[in-house]
Amino acid sequence: MHTSNTPAFSLLVPPDAAALKQVQKQISAWVHTTPVMTSEQINARVGQKIWFKCENLQKIGAFKYRGASAALSLISGEDLQRGVTTHSSGNHAQALAKAARERGIPAWIVMPENAPAVKMAAVKGYGAEIITCEATQAAREATLLEVQSRTGAVFIHPYNDYRVIAGQATAALEFLEHAPPLDSLLAPVGGGGLLSGTALACHYFSPQTRVIGCEPAGADDAFRSFQLKTRLPSESPHTMADGLLTGLGELTFEIILKYVSEIATVSEAAIVEAMHLIWERMKLVVEPSGAVPLAALLEKRIADPGEHIGIILSGGNVDLGHLPWNR
Amino acid sequence: MHTSNTPAFSLLVPPDAAALKQVQKQISAWVHTTPVMTSEQINARVGQKIWFKCENLQKIGAFKYRGASAALSLISGEDLQRGVTTHSSGNHAQALAKAARERGIPAWIVMPENAPAVKMAAVKGYGAEIITCEATQAAREATLLEVQSRTGAVFIHPYNDYRVIAGQATAALEFLEHAPPLDSLLAPVGGGGLLSGTALACHYFSPQTRVIGCEPAGADDAFRSFQLKTRLPSESPHTMADGLLTGLGELTFEIILKYVSEIATVSEAAIVEAMHLIWERMKLVVEPSGAVPLAALLEKRIADPGEHIGIILSGGNVDLGHLPWNR
Lengths: 327, 327
Description:
By secondary structure, chain A is α/β, with parallel strands linked by helices. Chain A contains 13 helices and 10 strands. Chain A folds into 2 domains: 213 residues, Rossmann fold, CATH 3.40.50; 91 residues, 3-Layer(aba) Sandwich (Rossmann fold), CATH 3.40.50.1100. In chain A, 54% of the residues are buried. Chains A and B meet through helix 12 of A and helix 12 of B.
C-alpha cells in the first residue's frame, strides 16, 4: 500500500513531469551533478555554440548511474533488501553494481562468458556477484530467470524500464537548468534509455528544444526504425561505439517516436575526429559513443540544429591502451 | 603617475595579500574558474582524501593562462598597445599569445627552430607572430632583445616575474575558496611560478596548509637547490614531464625557500601510473607534469601530507598519439 505523500511511480505508463522531478529529487544525494562545459575552439570549428553535459564525469563514468539509482530509489524497502539483478556487459552492469553497494544490498550481474575481463573486474570491484552464461540471448534470459527465482532479486533492465528512463532523464533536467535555452539537444542512441529520457525532459520542461538522436551509420537500427515507424532489431552492428550496439526497447521506442525530432547517423571517421577533438580541446576522456553527437555536427548530418546546441557526453569508459587514433 | 584607488603592483617585491586579491579580481573576467574534483577510487588507492584543482580545464589547457593574464592586466594601457613578447616553446607561449589576442594587442614569441611543429602551429593559431632562433640560450636572449628594441613590446618572462607569480597564485586562491581546509597543497615545480604563487597564497590565506613541491627525480634541480639553499641550474634533465625541465628563477626560488615546506621527487614509472589513474578514474586528460603530485602520494614520497590534500592538476596539453602507456 502506498501511504506517503509522494505520488506513486507507475511502471506502466511513461513518467510525467511530476514523476521526473520526483526522481531527480530522490536521486540527488546519490548522483553527481555533472558540470556543463564549453569550448571556444570546438564552437569555431562547427560554427555553432555548443554546451556539453559531462556525464563522463558521473559516477562509474557514465549516465547509466542515474538510471540504476532511480530504479533503486523506486523499489520498496522490503523488495530492495533481496537485492537486484540484470544482464549487461556494459556500463549498466557497473552502474547497478555500484548503486547496490552504496545502499548495502546485493547485486547479481549476468554476463556472457566472453565478456572482456576488464569489464568483469570492474563489476567485481563494485562488489557484485557475476554469473556467467553462454553468449546467446536465450542463455542470458534463462540465467537471469534462474537468478531471480533463486534470490528474489528485482530485475532492472538496462533501458526498457520507466524507472531507468526517468533516471536517465535527470541528465537533461540538470542540463536545462544549467545551460541557456537550447534550440536542440543531441544524445546518442543505443537501447534508447538516454534518448527517451532526454525527449521526455524536453517535452515537459523545454518544448521548444528539438531532441535529436545520434547513431553510428554501422548500427543504424534506431534510424531505420524511426523512418519506418516500426521497431527493428539491431542486426550485425559494426561500430567502435560499443555502447550503441543494442536495439531499441518497446518502451523507449514508443517515447522516441512521439517526442524525438530526428535521428542522424554518422561515419566511424567522424566519431574518431569528434572524440579526438573533445580529448584535445576539452581535456575530457569520452568514449566513442559519447562523441557521436559532435560527430553528427562535424559531418553536418542534422538539417537544422539551430544556434544553441546541447550535447550529452554520455560516458568516458574506454580502453586507454587501444585508442582509435593509434590503430 | 598612479592615480586610481587600487594599490600599485610592485615589480620589485613579492606580491602581498592585497596584491594577490587585486590580481585575482582583475583577471576574473579573463580566466576560467576551474572546477575542483574528487575521486573515491583514487582516495581509496592512496588512503587519503584528495581534492584536485583542474587547471587542465583552464584556457589553453594549463594554469599558465593565469600568469599571462595577470601580467597583461598589470601593464599600463599605452605600453600594452605596443604588444608583448616572450621566449618559450611551451604552455606559456600559447598562454601569452591567446591572452594578447583576447585584448587585441600583438604578441611576438621567440621559439627555438627545433620546437615541435605542433607547438608552433598552436601559437600561430592564437594569432601570435613566431620568431625562430637557434636552440641556444644566447640566441634566445639576443633574438628577444632584437624583438623588444624593434617593436617596443613588453617582455613577460614565463615565471621569473612577480606579475606572473601573482597570476599563478590565483589557482590556489580559488582552490582554498572551493575546497575544505587542506593539510597540504601539492604542486609540480619547474621554473617555480606555480609553486611560488601557491606558497604565497597559502602563506597569506591558509597558513596551516603545508605547501609541497613535486618534481621528477630525473629533473631534480629544485629538490637539490632546496636542500642546499642555493639555486642550481637544471642540467641535462631527463623526464617525460616536459613542463618541468626548466630551472628555478631567482624570484621564484626566494619565495620557495621561504614558504615551501618540502620538495618531493618521483620516478617516471610513478608519473605514468598517476597519469593513467587520473585519465581512467577521473576521465580527465592531464599531461605528465600535472600527474607528478599524485605520483608523489603513490610512491609515499611525502613525509606527512596529512589527511586532506590538495593537488593542482597543472595542465592537459599532451600528444594524444604518443601516450606513455603505449610506448
